């Protein structure tokens, strides 16, 4: 998840999940890995980028449609992870869904 994704030509959608964690691991890492693995198998999934320091985590997932985002939100395993996030893993979080209309890349 530490690679800049090569996304297709716009338009497509980005889901930006920003979070502040609670103390302790409590199975978070294993669940995060499982969610990326499951999401990558969903129709419409284009990729994911993620970064975290000791205060803030940001994960951006890319999707080809709003319908694909909605289907992922309603996936049964993802619902369990969302509930655990609210009860155990996150002190606070925000979720933003954006339509990507333009992009550019630079690489040395």
Automatic annotation (TrEMBL):
EC number: 1.14.-.-
InterPro entries, per the entry: ABM_dom, Dimeric_a/b-barrel, Jasmonate_Hydroxylase-like
Coiled coil: none
DNA damage listed as a keyword: no
Domain ABM: 12-82
Keywords: Monooxygenase, Oxidoreductase
Enzyme class: oxidoreductase
Gene Ontology terms for molecular function: monooxygenase activity
PANTHER family: ABM DOMAIN-CONTAINING PROTEIN, BLL5343 PROTEIN
Name recorded for this polypeptide: Antibiotic biosynthesis monooxygenase family protein
Organism: Robertmurraya beringensis
Native organism taxonomy: Bacteria, Bacillati, Bacillota, Bacilli, Bacillales
């Amino acid at each position: 998840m530490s690679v800049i994704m090569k996304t297709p030509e716009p338009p497509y959608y980005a889901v930006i999940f920003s979070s502040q964690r609670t103390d302790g691991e409590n199975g978070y890492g294993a669940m995060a890995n499982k969610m990326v693995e499951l999401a990558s198998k969903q129709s419409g999934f284009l990729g994911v980028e993620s970064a975290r320091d000791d205060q803030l985590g940001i994960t951006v997932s890319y999707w080809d449609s709003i319908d694909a985002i909605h289907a992922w939100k309603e996936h049964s395993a993802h619902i369990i992870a969302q509930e655990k996030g609210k009860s155990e893993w996150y002190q606070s979080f925000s979720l933003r869904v954006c339509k990507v209309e333009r992009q550019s890349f630079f690489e040395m």
